[in-house]
Amino acid sequence: MVNEQEFLAGYDPRAYPAVAVTVDVVALTIRDNELQVLLIQRAAPPFAGFWALPGGFVRPEEDLAAAARREFAEETGLGGEPLRRVHFEQLASYGTPDRDPRMRIFSIAYLAFAPDLPEPTAGSDAGAAEWLALTALPTRELAFDHRRIIEDGLERARSKLEYTPLATRFVGDEFTIADLRAVYETVWGHPLHAGNFHRKVLSVPGLVEGTGATTEHGGPRGGPRARLYRAGDARLLHPALLRPAREENVR
Amino acid sequence: MVNEQEFLAGYDPRAYPAVAVTVDVVALTIRDNELQVLLIQRAAPPFAGFWALPGGFVRPEEDLAAAARREFAEETGLGGEPLRRVHFEQLASYGTPDRDPRMRIFSIAYLAFAPDLPEPTAGSDAGAAEWLALTALPTRELAFDHRRIIEDGLERARSKLEYTPLATRFVGDEFTIADLRAVYETVWGHPLHAGNFHRKVLSVPGLVEGTGATTEHGGPRGGPRARLYRAGDARLLHPALLRPAREENVR
DNA sequence: CTAAGAATAACTCAGGCTGAGAATAACCCC
DNA sequence: GGGGTTATTCTCAGCCTGAGTTATTCTTAG
């Protein structure tokens, strides 16, 4: 133990192999009624040709969250007000020694949520970029530990829908209850009871507030015009909008 | 934008000022019916004399979680089976450029929970070490952004008690329902209805399982012998054991 | 123009869970 | 033995949920 302490006292990171810190962004959106994640195709080794999360080195003097927004903006071409509306939150950090073959790289992952975004600007520094439906993810070759990071991000997103008004970030400024329900169904991956969902959404204080207006037309396949709502001022949903229990996840 | 891309293409972190990655551990335990956090007193600048979370540089070839366990073990003197029983989980990462005056240091914080631990081994490399009651924290001078990290850890702990059997990590192998209730009351900071808590704990599948035994004696101030329980096999509590709503936190 | 189909929104109802209070019984200390 | 304390169990009203139904409005096919 004394050796241990002597070692520590003299421990200077500058005397050791350099390390680097990157941010990776799990950007989720809903397009074509599917949950999709933003991926870029790597042009250079390692993992050339593989798909990866947008991300890159944190610059000197740059905050972590700022780095995440920058990387996201570079791939999507988003800026200004539309970018400010995108929700960002820190997800987790990944630092297994061999996760990148080049050197020791720690990655701090961020989660981003946005409503239906345009096709990414393919001409960025990373070659191809695209939104990929999560259903198509299993057959895609992913670089590094990015599959794991996406899975962690997904679980976070599903969980956050329960306790926060995050779902309102996936829809436009004004939306119908059915729009919101579609978000929950898409992210959670199974259908919800329309009547109960409606009752619940209206009963949670601060989740939505009515605009007084309705849609211009009924749904594409019929039905009355739906009332329009805006996101409310709640930061936490109480009581929460819980996913039906999945027995297999409990034990 | 082209300049941006050219910059990125040539971006090599090795050409930039070195960065370092540390882990910091928010270790929580319950002693004397109070929630306490492990702090060490810094011997050297910066922040010499200030109190800080135990932590240090992640070594080459060392995993993040392993680094957190190592730093925790060094300060507490714990090892072997007792150390394995301590619950660790990643909390969040902190990387504001000026959070450490020496250089750019990213810190990945871990949360540790353990039942009533002994006084830390004061003779470690960091000078004094002690468990500090959270109630005494506001008057203590803390180094770096460690106050913020502790706050984040606390909120995580409070929240995790709701959805996971984490509370069983704060008590011994065998415990009474009252022991468990004391954990919840201590961490959440307010009293709970004994009867309802009892009913709830026994009704959540997999939270606890009876041992058939009871305590040797009644409580110090009277009352019957209490039944003893062990932690069950649940990984998630369903339905959850929710904190009473705090209106002020919702909006 | 009309009928069929679809969706919104509101209502009903049984069952489960919660908070609050109370009852019962076992046990400590004096 | 008596008073105070605590574990455990009950009771009961109120709220919330899942499931199903109904009235109404609207689109589309024919």
UniProtKB/TrEMBL annotation, chains A, B:
Keywords: Hydrolase. SUPFAM superfamilies: Nudix, Winged helix' DNA-binding domain. Gene3D superfamilies: Nucleoside Triphosphate Pyrophosphohydrolase, Winged helix-like DNA-binding domain superfamily/Winged helix DNA-binding domain. The keyword Aminoacyl-tRNA synthetase does not apply. Signal peptide: none annotated. Residues 20-155 form the Nudix hydrolase domain. GO terms for molecular function: hydrolase activity. Pfam families: NUDIX, WHD_NrtR. This is NUDIX hydrolase. It comes from Asanoa iriomotensis.
